[in-house]
């Protein structure tokens, strides 16, 4: 890793502390130079170049006190260093620019497919890393496959279901349970009342159930009706709980 530049996020940057040290300038003077450039950019640029290339940050001194500093991209560094014109400063600017290029090439090489790398040692290292990444991905997919299948099933419904429909959905996940047994399980979990097919208000509020109700005429008299349905959120909760119960 270079002593002049480093990687922050996805960008190669240097910082005001490094510039201060290398150009033998007080850090507060470097901060002043940077902020002068930022102010000029705000006045001159339609796009906010300063936000993209100057990032205000902090560092800790030996006493663990925090102070301001800036991280600078190559473009930002070039603007600030433009005013440093002594012969020694020119040498340091060339060093910085070369280090920026080296680091960018290094990152590109590390991210490139192995077959695109010319150096045989680097190509071999990248090939090994690719194989390890593939094996890790395969292991992750094996672990996540049941969860993905379940999520796809839930997304396929995209609507609230009756208890018998949720029982069928559970069977697709390898949980053998019929409508009657699922009703019984919901009562044992105290999600619905023991004497009627109606959820406790707490679980309606959580978004697990929804209730449709109304009044209809039967043989000349009005009768109230109520239908309980399980929301997609409730389906996920119930099937996950059934899976855990089955595994224990």
From TrEMBL:
Gene Ontology molecular function, alphabetical: DNA binding
Entries under InterPro entries matching the protein: Ant_C, Phage_regulatory_Rha
Annotated ranges, domain Antirepressor protein C-terminal: 140-244
Domain of life of the organism encoding this protein: Bacteria
Coiled coil: none
Protein name: Phage regulatory protein
Organism (species): Bacillus pumilus (Bacillus mesentericus)
């Amino acid at each position: 890793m270079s002593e002049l530049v480093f990687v922050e996020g996805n960008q190669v940057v240097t910082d005001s502390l490094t510039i201060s040290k290398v150009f033998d300038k007080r850090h507060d003077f470097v901060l002043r130079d940077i902020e002068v450039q930022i102010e000029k950019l705000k006045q001159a640029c339609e796009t906010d170049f300063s936000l993209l290339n100057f990032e205000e940050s902090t560092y800790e001194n030996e006493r663990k006190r925090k102070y301001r500093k800036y991280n600078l991209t190559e473009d930002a560094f070039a603007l600030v260093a433009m005013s440093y014109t002594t012969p020694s400063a020119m040498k340091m600017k060339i060093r910085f620019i070369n280090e920026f290029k080296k680091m960018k090439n290094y990152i590109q090489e590390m991210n490139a497919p192995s077959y695109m790398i010319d150096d045989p040692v680097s190509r071999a290292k990248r090939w090994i890393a690719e194989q390890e990444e593939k094996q890790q991905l395969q292991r992750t997919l094996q672990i996540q496959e049941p969860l993905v299948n379940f999520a796809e099933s839930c997304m396929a419904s995209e609507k609230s279901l009756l208890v018998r429909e949720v029982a069928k959905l559970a069977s697709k996940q390898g949980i053998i349970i019929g409508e009657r047994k699922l009703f019984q399980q919901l009562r044992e979990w105290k999600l619905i009342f023991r004497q009627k097919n109606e959820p406790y208000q707490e679980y309606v509020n959580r978004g697990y159930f929804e209730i449709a109700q109304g009044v209809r005429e039967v043989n000349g008299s009005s009768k109230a009706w109520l239908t309980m349905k399980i929301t997609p959120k409730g389906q996920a909760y119930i099937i996950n709980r059934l899976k855990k119960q089955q595994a224990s």
